[in-house]
Amino acid sequence: MISKVTITGVKDLSANLKKLDINLSKLSQPLKSSAEFMKLEANRNFSAKGATFGETWLPLTERTKKIKERLGYGSQPMMVRTGLLKSAFWIDGPYTTKLGGNVKVLNPIYYAPLHQEGVGRLPRRVLLKLAKKQVDEITRIFVNWVTRQVRQSFKK
Fold first, then answer.
1. DSSP H/E element including 152
2. I need a labelling partner for 46 at 20 to 30 A (CA). Which of 7, 52, 102, 109 fits?
3. What is the spatial distance between Cα 64 and Cα 55, in angstroms, rounded to a whole number?
4. Going by C-beta distance under 8 Å and a sequence separation of 6 or more, which residues neighbour residue 125?
5. Is the dihedral of CA 20, 24, 25, 27 positive or negative?
């Protein structure tokens, strides 16, 4: 006895897979969302004194506290005098190609890397970092985006 198997919907499936391929190549939205999240994390990190990225900043030395007081900004939070360092984070991109994409969150203030790395007498005070919490959130952003793209590509 010979059974007959009929496959239907192959053309629809093929068309939907092509739509999905096109939709998944448009990475700008999740890249932008990820960068905006990281920029917010960098700003939150100032009030959290480094804890946002799991690297709590060392307290100010007594010498530094006295200097801040003498210069008239002793009441300002740690790492804040004018607010420029905190407010200077910006997003470069996203940039996409057929092969992928990228986006950067930068701080152009010349002394940002000095604090980030800890140079000379400056202790290391991380301003921006991809720690586990941030990787998990960016992963969630991309998973949700891919899920939306699949649903959108296969909806009737």
1. helix 132-154
2. 102
3. 20
4. 50, 57, 58, 79, 115, 116, 118
5. positive
Supply the DSSP string of 20-66, one letter for each residue: HHHHHT--HHHHHHHHHHHHHHHHHHHHTTTGGGT-PPPPPPHHHHH
Residue 153, pLDDT score: 83
Distance between CA atoms of 153 and 24, rounded to whole angstroms?
10
pTM, two decimals, is: 0.84
Residue type, 44: R
Task: Tell me phi and psi for residue 109, to 5 degrees.
Answer: -65, 130
Per-residue pLDDT tens digits for 60-95: 989 989 998 999 988 888 888 888 999 999 999 999
